[in-house]
Write a structure and sequence with these properties.
There is one protein chain. The protein contains three helices and three strands, in the order βααββα. With 79 residues, it is an alpha+beta fold. A three-stranded antiparallel beta sheet has the order 1-3-2. A hairpin with a 2-residue loop joins β2 and β3.
């Protein structure tokens, strides 16, 4: 029988990997961390990001965008 190699999914990503997953540059992600919008953990000298935390951040941003869109006043025609 052939052995099938299974990879353990990564639980933590470094800043470059996390930024890539979000589609932003590492500097933008660092700014989001400084603003308290994206949680991270520090292990030794490395700043790491949990995949679940990144998913929660995306969900929160989507919810805020939907709430912001529904809170926008309806434009009125100027007569």
């Amino acid at each position: 029988m052939e052995k099938v190699a299974t990879q353990t999914p990564r639980l933590l990503l470094d800043i470059r990997q996390a930024a890539g997953a979000l589609g932003v540059c590492p500097r933008t992600l660092a700014a989001l961390v400084s603003a308290g919008k994206v949680p991270s953990v520090k292990l030794g000298k490395r700043r790491l990001f949990s995949v679940k935390a990144l998913e929660r951040f995306i969900e929160q941003e989507e919810a805020a965008a939907v709430a912001g869109a529904s809170a926008q006043p309806t434009p009125r025609a100027v007569l």
